[in-house]
Amino acid sequence: MAGYILRRLLQAIPVLLGTTFLIYFMVFAMPGDPLLALFGDKTPSPALLESLRQQYHLDQPFIIQYFLYLGGIFHGDFGTSFSGEPVADILARTFPVTIRLAIMALIIEFVGGVLIGLVSGLRKGKLFDASALVVSLIFISLPIFVIAFVAQFIFGIQLGWARTTVSSGAPIQDLILPAFVLASITFAQIVRLTRASVIETQSLDFVRTAYGKGLSRRRIIPVHILRNSLIPVVTYAATDFGVLLVGATVTEGIFNVPGVGRTLYQAIVRGEGPTVVSFVTVMVLIYLVVNLVVDLLYGLLDPRIRYVK
Amino acid sequence: MSDSSTSIQPLLEIKNLEVGFQTTEGIVPAVRGVDLTLMPGQTLAIVGESGSGKSTTAHAIINLLPGPGRITGGSIMFDGQELTSYSEKKMEEIRGRQIGFVPQDPMSNLNPVWSVGFQVEETIRANGIASGRKAVKAHAIQVLKEAGLADADKRLKQFPHQFSGGMRQRVLIGIGLSSRPKLLIADEPTSALDVTVQRRILDHLETLTRDIGTAVLFITHDLGLAAERAEQLVVMYKGKIVEAGPSKEILQNPVHPYTQRLVAAAPSLASRRIQSATHASASHALSDLEYAPTKVTEGLDLIAAAEERIEQQPKTKRPDAIVVKDLTKVYKIRGQGRGAAGELTASDAVSFSVEKGTTTALVGESGSGKSTVAKMILRLEDPTSGSIMIDGQDVAPLKGKALLDLRRRMQPVFQDPYGSLDPLRNIGNTIGEPLNTHKVGDRVSRKARVLELLDQVALPKTLITRYPNELSGGQRQRVAIARALALKPDIVVLDEAVSALDVLVQAQILKLLADLQAELELTYLFITHDLAVVRVIADNVCVMQQGKIVEAASTDDVFDSPKEQYTKELLNAIPGAGITLGV
Predict the structure, then answer these.
(1) Which of A281, B283, B344, B425 is 20 to 30 Å from A145 by CA-CA measure?
(2) B63 min Cα distance to partner chain A (Å)
(3) What residues of chain B lie within 8 A of the CB of A223, using their CB?
């Protein structure tokens, strides 16, 4: 098992190198001079520009810039943003917030989606199932910002249950409403996937045999139906973590969450190579780890594909 | 009937049972007025084809009917209890505890994500046979050992996919009998297994149930098997019982036309009859057999088919269509543990030849390498060493167009008629696909050829626009045969082509294959695990075991004087050995 994990982590190295290179190249190729844009209408003195160019290595050819950046990473130096703050600090400030938000959303969508999907599947064609399908269709059709504004209006303003914006430390109670909104993107998918999976599992031979063995319905539903139905759902939900990180950009904007989304957006607009690349690198790293976790989870849920120990 | 037997109460008494399936068009009846009586400790078999209502009857007893199924009338008395009046809660008490259930397909009836031990233990716990972790585990080991898993204590933690089909069926039998039920319902418990495994498992089940004193309700589509395993027979057709009585009587003197058809179509019985006839007359001529095909058995009678096939064979020696020499295939397999790798010799220096226009059967259990040989002959796998000559031409160096030409002369038919047809293509396209691939003729002539083929395999022309899911298993296998014949091949490789079919359909397909061989001078390589079928269809037999051919001879010789112990085992595994038939 340890060997397998190590192998997977080693495989991540070329992926990381490739993605950082591509991102760095794309930021480099963006039109316009990032430094001039920084000064807006004012025209800085050529000497100042020159010293800034040297400070950010912007006078070097692209490939040198890239390697200088890469070399820095190995020393724990992610570069400096144009505002003078080390990128490492920005990363440390924003990522925990966004990851907290995404994990909360993941738990909400998984627990809620699986429960509703399970009941829907068990009561296929009944009133509960029909209503769940209609509601999930509504969630699938609505863009996230509509859901966000409606949620802000109802729960934040009308009912006053939650704050419409998140305070600076992004405490968990402030993040509940944004997490629900974020979860709504994929919640409907989880419901539908669970429902379909439960319906399929229910008709399998071993479920009938379980009844034939004398087991009660109360035992068969969690042990033989739900457990087997979860395999595709867990895989989906875990890979979904990436979608949640991306979706967080919009949600963070609306709820004013001091997370990755807002910061990354600003860095892209300013053409801050090191900042953008560092953020994307960390995101790629998270994707790779999540994928590894999914694969390990898969083996845990389905012994047929358990890895050779 | 003596006084003593009337004083015993029947264990199971079904009276006028009606089961229907709720559909949008109302209730469709599946079981229509079934009566049957099973005495304690007795074995009763329900025989019939798929759709006859035999499984539905069995499932109705313990209320395991699928969603829309309902008992619409009649009574089921079990051990003094009226089961039809029982609630789901009360049925849970009956199931497992008083009535055990052994399902049909061992591959799909164990939950793949739980260990075998877990699944046995939960049964023991649910039925209150033992409590406490250690007692339950000890009981589970005992149950599995009884069912024939000698190393049960070591294998409790293993998962179903680490067990062979036969072993899984033993686990299911162990589960079914774990609470020593008064009645065991065995729903085709071995139809998914090899004949030799089937024999061992049923022998074991028989001893076990006799020792415990469990009555068995045995569901099967093979009349020969039913008669061998049960004292009493019930023959079902379209939801009704058409004949019932002691097994031997029914077999020797079937009254109902449907039973007569089942007797005629069962390969096990047919092979027995051919055998006794060839023994009786020195001439080995089947025509000496005093057996007159009646109207009801026409087109299904395996003996008539075999007889006809042999008559139509020219007696002169013909050139060899397939010559296989020292054919070897070694697979690299991944072993347990890091870096461990092994080699598996699936086919070990296999040599045989097939004369043009004849049928050679490759017989063996699963894993014997018979399908590997077939795949190599079809060039779907490359041999590790050895040679294959088709019509005197070495096929190994063939590439591109030459290989395509070879494939045109040699076509396969596979086992699973559900899996081998593309569900998104209609029948006309499926049959016509080889014609398109090989660019034979134009659109009009292709269509004409497809219609001609449908006719040849006795399917209505209207099927041309239908899709596979609208067809029955037998019809699908006919489509697969028609597709194989589309290019007018010389050789057809039939890989377990009739194994998945009901006996009546199987008989029809075997008859069709015999007719087509006579008409088109086809050469067949027939791969099967069932020697009974071989008796009917093949001229020569190669018996394979662990990748090697252990015995090769003419069919008559193999049946009359088998030389190898393994061949004898295979012959003994044909059901119905102890039954004297009224030939």
Answers:
(1) A281
(2) 9
(3) 114, 122
